[in-house]
């Protein structure tokens, strides 16, 4: 017949009637993540529900920052007169540097913005710190916690305190509004796994004689 078939709609105008289960699950997870992060950001500002606790949370924030850990480790390395202590401190320094590089790379690739309720008054930030995923503080806390538990002889109460410190650092990132819940959870997992990489690449006088010759 002379009737012509209707032209198909452009692909972008077509409604996806059967979205994938994975897509629905990811969208739901993201919505829950954003909702929970905002509800738990009780120290995000002075006027927040727990605004009076914000100074304490910021002290915890500094305790997990990379600069104090790098400077403290480097100072201990320079002052140490024990070959065994120098080996441990040199590997801790290597772990901290590896952590900084890896977190910066992941943040630069993912480029997830920080929560909208975050107040940008963080201690010593760099360009990638405007991104949220993963939490560098959580990654570092998990890495340092596992490192200390494996390489320092501590009484049980002190070991418990080290683990609690790592957990509190992670929680403080959400309470301050710096990160979403998933940023912190992934950061803790990343730091835990990163320690295994450090152990695998452990630096010793045999594997890296040039480094130990400097000290």
UniProtKB/TrEMBL annotation:
Annotated transmembrane regions: 89-110, 147-172, 184-203
EC number: 3.6.1.68
PANTHER family in the record: POLYISOPRENOID DIPHOSPHATE_PHOSPHATE PHOSPHOHYDROLASE PLPP6, SPHINGOSINE-1-PHOSPHATE PHOSPHOHYDROLASE
Keyword Transmembrane: yes
Cross-referenced Pfam families: PAP2
Recorded topology in the membrane: Multi-pass membrane protein
Molecular function per GO: sphingosine-1-phosphate phosphatase activity
GO cellular component: endoplasmic reticulum membrane; nuclear inner membrane
The entry's keywords: Endoplasmic reticulum, Hydrolase, Lipid metabolism, Membrane, Nucleus, Transmembrane, Transmembrane helix
Domain of life: Eukaryota
Keyword RNA-binding: no
GO BP of this protein: lipid metabolic process
Localization per Swiss-Prot or TrEMBL: Endoplasmic reticulum membrane; Nucleus inner membrane
Protein name: Polyisoprenoid diphosphate/phosphate phosphohydrolase PLPP6
InterPro entries, A to Z: PAP2/HPO, PAP2/HPO_sf
């Amino acid at each position: 017949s002379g009737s012509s078939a209707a032209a198909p709609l452009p692909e972008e105008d077509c409604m996806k009637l059967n979205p994938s289960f994975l897509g629905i699950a990811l969208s739901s997870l993201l919505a829950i993540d954003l909702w929970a992060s905002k509800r738990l950001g009780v120290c995000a500002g002075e006027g927040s529900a727990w605004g009076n606790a914000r100074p304490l949370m910021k002290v915890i924030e500094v305790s997990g920052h990379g600069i104090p850990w790098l400077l403290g480790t480097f100072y201990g390395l320079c002052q140490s007169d024990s070959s065994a202590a120098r080996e441990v401190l040199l590997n801790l320094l290597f772990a901290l540097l590896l952590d900084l590089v890896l977190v910066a790379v992941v943040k630069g690739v993912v480029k997830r913005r920080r929560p909208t309720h975050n107040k940008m008054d963080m201690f010593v930030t760099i360009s990638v710190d405007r991104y949220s995923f993963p939490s560098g503080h959580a990654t570092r806390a998990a890495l340092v916690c596992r490192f200390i538990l494996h390489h320092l002889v501590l009484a049980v109460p002190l070991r418990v305190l080290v683990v609690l410190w790592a957990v509190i650092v992670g929680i403080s990132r959400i309470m301050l509004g710096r990160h979403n819940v998933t940023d912190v959870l992934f950061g803790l997992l990343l730091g835990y796994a990163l320690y295994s990489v450090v152990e695998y690449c452990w630096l010793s006088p045999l594997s890296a004689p040039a480094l130990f010759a400097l000290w």
